[in-house]
Input
Amino acid sequence: MTRRTGLALSAATLLVAASAFGSAGFEVTEADTGDWAGERLIDIDFGLNGPIGGGTILWGAAAREPRMGWTDGRVQDFADMRRREHDLRDGIEGVDARFSIGVTQPDGLYRLTVWLADTLRVTGPVSVEVGDVRVASDIAPEAGERRALRWLVRPGTDRVSFRLIAAPCGHFGVTAARLEGPAGAGLAVIFPGADTSAVQVPPADALPPMTEESLRNQLRRDAEHLMAERLSDGRFSAHGAWYENSFPVRALIAAGELLNEPAWKEAAFVVLDGFVSRQQADGNWASDYGEAEECPNEGTPPVSANLADIGTMTLALAIAADDSDAARRETWVKALVHYADSVSLPNQDRYGGFCNRTWQNHDYRFPYTVATATQVSTLAALYRHTGNPRYAEAVARGTRWLAAQVLEDGRIAFAPHDRDAVKLLDATHFGDGYYAMETLALVAVWTEDDALRRDADAAFDRWVSGKSGLRSLALEGYWWPMGDLWADSKLAGVPALLARRARRPSPPWLREMVLRQMAWLDDDGRARRIGVRCSVASQRGEFALAATGFAGLSAASALKMQTGFAGIVE
Output
């Protein structure tokens, strides 16, 4: 049943009649009578500009706090300061995303008001869901128009939420929201953060023992979190960056294999299908992606097509090909060969290093450690599919170039992307150093060249056991200091590297160190400090999906270490 409201909605349709019910306890009703009485809980001014005060908060696209936030999709700020009306100058736009506000009285009656407006890009029409009920469709604010929509909501849970869904090739624009509630109601935490009361790195004997069962449970929690938190486009990056998808994809494939959950692998494969479909005629990929590349203005020339970032996805693709059906494997390997022959190999120098090439509209021709690492590991995996000796030769030169960067004391002589120079990194500089160490670990597993394996192992072991290596710097003998969220997301993956090494001849203490690291990661309060199993809307959620992907790789690798399971390399 459909009816119009007293709001001037032009061609828009409101789909809620007297009352509509969604999931258990949820109820939403049109609020067009004006006789509802309640207390204002919060006013939200979306965007980066505006006065703050009187219960109003300013909420940019990057804002995060425990009581409210955007999930399920990518959003970004828009601004047009030429407009005279403050209410229309800025806001948030996206394609499909949900905003939730935590409330303390689930059975209370709330009034939700949302203001839609046009943005600098094509805006409408837009559909709206409140909770899990479609309440409006074909809302299309005209230029210079700010549209108010209101509903009465009885949430039945700890949150009131609205989802905005743009039509194909469109964008929604939202400038403000208001939530009013019953007397005594307040805002509730719905996106919990880290447990700051817990000791960050407790003594090893204070950690619970990690068994095969607990590792399986941890891996399941990581995979289920990734599935629950993936965005409306099915991918895993709030920034639209391919590299942020690579580690969640690999974690889901490993978890699907180890825990016999085909749906997890299929979700990862769909992301890889989308990646392959966007390969350019020259064999390359853009490092970032728009919401809909097939739409006008979404296919603009990329500002980045750098080997470091794309190499993380080509590695994921090459690993996944081991576990895919024949048709996918053929398509994926063909794409990888095109990339290797047209892009990767031409950018390796005679010493083995790879340059990064186009990043942020600059073409960098200097050897770069991260680009070398992701390209070498991809070529090593691709060699297993093709047997092409050119790939094996490139892997050997690149691996030895990386191995030579690991000094005797465990530090890394790191080659940056933007200059022909070297800077010295501590062994715990995981944000950049992780990739080189992963490549050394993977080549040692995959290579058929015993001498190359020894070189890779020796460099990896220096990183771990040198006098300035990981072991000497470990807090309480198993963990390391935490820094920024981008670097810390890779910290969650370090146990995966050590577990791969421990699955082959290695000192007994290495296996014990891995199990202690996994016990630290098993604690949600501590793991959230580095983004693991955080909601993307939480205060430490900017790289939460990547961090959880790294943690999933660690859980899978540790489980294989304990069980002796072979299978594909995680």
